[in-house]
Design a protein that fits this description.
Elements (H helix, E strand, L loop, with lengths): L4 H4 L12 H12 L6 E5 L6 H13 L13 H8 L5 E5 L6 H11 L9 E6 L6 H12 L5 E7 L7 H4 L3 E4 L5 H15 L2 E2 L1 H10 L4 H14 L3 E2 L1 H8 L4 H12 L3 H13 L4 H20 L11 H10 L2 H17 L6 H15 L12 H10 L13 H7 L4 H8 L2 E6 L2 E6 L9 H15 L4 E6 L7 H22 L1 H10 L13
Parallel strand pairs: 1-4, 1-5, 2-3, 3-4, 6-7, 9-10
Antiparallel strand pairs: 8-9
Helix pairs in contact: 3-4, 5-6, 8-9, 9-10, 9-11, 12-13, 13-17, 14-15, 14-16, 14-17, 16-17, 20-21
Length: 514
């Protein structure tokens, strides 16, 4: 029976480990110098090598050639550990060993000398799942274990381990494995397996693994089966539900032209092929992230990246603030797509939101519709040539035809002074990123068009009174939320459900009706 790739190609020596050089260096130095600790703790996300490292350490401690950073891998001890038959290596899953009785039994057995090796090695996986009583039971043994016992703990959630346990362990944090290293390992495995594969397909698999080498090998297994013994780009995209990059390119190209019809046409083509709109938003956000990196750190995009030219093109066409805005909209759109009438509506609404909030300006800005242009003199009528009644800046902002970042700037400003055409505003420190010259210029233009007179706009950053339009609206929303929650809590039917059926109100899901 053929072994799955994740097991077949699991590293058996320190030199075979991928992406954890900092941990390997520390452990090999300690083993070479015979500076051994009684308890090790490996932390990190799934599939980065925690249990693999633990087994290699077990071999390094018990190899028949002696304690070494380079176990032979051929002696009976090494082969038994590799095949899971070594009697002095005890592996436990804390998820199924949470009772304090189990831990006490384990610790009592630890007192006895090893059967054949130098050390009894206890590997406890997902140790954070032990009960509080179990942790207390192991504290004394962890602090002063018998000389023949080594503990190796592994966890994906170190925050849940008591400090008293952490302080008794030598801790190593394993990092997510970078995509280039995962891709190189996948390529090596394919060569050893004699399987043909396309470079772009391996890039997709490495990206989908999210830093986990084990997950990447599992995906590679699936891709080989899906492609009938060959790992091709199209087959991998179909398997992962990925969206062809051409769709993303077409969407962004249409967005730079402010062409809503073209954006909808792309969405329609995607719908015809039954592509996942949720994954499309995920990949669009990833693509925007790479464009932002190319703008700020050009070397972050590899020279051999097949998308390098396209990324550079969009990095030149889109402003930094535009990319940040589009990225946030894509993230929120993906989060809200489950609340939409259907996925198509959620996806296209996200695209239209991008179009609506794209800051105007540049050569790609569309011509202003005639109806809008004809309304401009109306906004500059004599009745509008006045400052807000009693200095009501928020009331004025509500009347301005603002969009995008200038709208956010106006909503987060407080009026300091207004005299002789000079408007002084203040932005809180938390929103100081909004005080960009481009946003100020667009806000100034909107004010002048609305008031029908020239304006000298000055905006500073400082402590305010909490009376910005954004802050006022947030307080109003919180008030409505509290009133809605209280009304639900007072409802007789709800009270009956709570009292007789042990029901509870999920306050986070309560949304007041506008």
């Amino acid at each position: 029976m053929t072994q799955v790739l994740a097991r077949k190609w699991r590293p058996r020596l320190f030199s075979e480990l991928v992406g954890q050089e900092h941990v390997v260096r520390a452990l090999t130095n300690a083993l070479t110098q015979q500076r051994l600790h009684h308890a090790y703790l490996f932390t990190g996300t799934r599939g980065v090598g925690k249990t693999t490292l633990a087994r290699i350490i077990a071999k390094a401690l018990n190899c028949e050639i002696g304690i070494t950073a380079e176990p032979c891998g051929k002696c009976r001890t090494c082969t038994d550990i590799d095949t899971g038959r070594y009697v002095d290596l005890i592996e436990l899953d804390a998820g199924s060993t949470t009772k304090v009785e189990n831990m006490r039994e384990l610790l009592e057995n630890a007192l006895y000398a090893p059967t054949s090796g130098r050390f009894k090695v206890y590997i406890i996986d997902e140790v954070h799942m032990l009960s509080g009583s179990s942790f207390n039971a192991m504290l004394k043994t962890l602090e002063e274990p018998p000389s023949h016992v080594k503990f190796i703990l592994a966890t994906t959630d170190p925050q849940r381990i008591p400090v008293t346990v952490l302080s008794r362990c030598l801790q190593f944090n394993l990092k997510r494995i970078p995509q280039p290293q995962i891709k190189a390992q996948l390529k090596r495995v394919l060569e050893l397996e004699g399987v043909a594969g396309e470079d772009e397909a391996l890039t997709l698999l490495a990206r989908a693994a999210h830093g986990s080498l084990r997950d990447s090998l599992s995906l590679l297994d699936q891709a080989i089966a899906h492609g009938g013994g060959r790992v091709g780009q199209q087959a991998v995209r179909a398997m992962l539900g990925s969206v062809e990059l051409e769709y993303l390119h077409d969407i962004l190209s249409a967005l730079t032209r402010r062409d809503g019809a073209a954006m909808l046409a792309v969405a329609d083509r995607m719908a015809e092929r039954s592509l996942s709109f949720e994954i499309a938003l995920q990949e669009l956000a990833t693509f925007l992230h790479r464009i932002a990196l190319a703008q700020m750190v050009p070397d972050a995009v590899a020279a051999d990246d097949p998308e390098r030219v396209v990324i550079a093109t969009f990095a030149a066409e889109l402003g930094a603030e535009e990319i940040q805005l589009l990225y946030q909209i894509a993230l929120h759109g993906r989060q809200d797509i489950g609340l939409a009438p259907d996925d198509y509506a959620g996806f296209t609404m996200t695209l239209m939101r991008m179009l609506a909030f794209m800051p105007e300006g540049g050569s790609s800005r569309p011509e202003r519709p005639a109806a809008v242009a004809s309304n401009a003199p109306a906004r500059a009528s004599p009745d509008s040539k006045k400052k807000p009644t009693d200095g009501d800046w928020n009331a004025l902002v509500s009347q301005l035809p603002l969009a995008g970042m200038e709208r956010m700037l106006a909503h987060n400003c407080e009026l300091v002074a207004w005299q002789d055409g000079r408007i002084e505003l203040r932005v809180p420190h938390a929103q100081r990123h909004l005080v960009e010259r481009a946003y100020q210029n667009r806000l100034k233009l909107a004010l002048e068009q609305h008031l029908g007179t020239s304006v000298r706009l000055e905006i500073s950053v400082g402590a305010g009174n909490g009376n910005t339009l954004a802050a006022v609206q947030e307080r109003e929303n919180q008030q409505r939320q509290s009133e809605t929650a209280a009304a639900i809590d007072r409802d007789p039917f709800v009270r009956e459900l709570i009292e007789h059926l042990d029901a509870r109100v999920l306050t986070a899901t309560i949304k007041p009706v506008p």
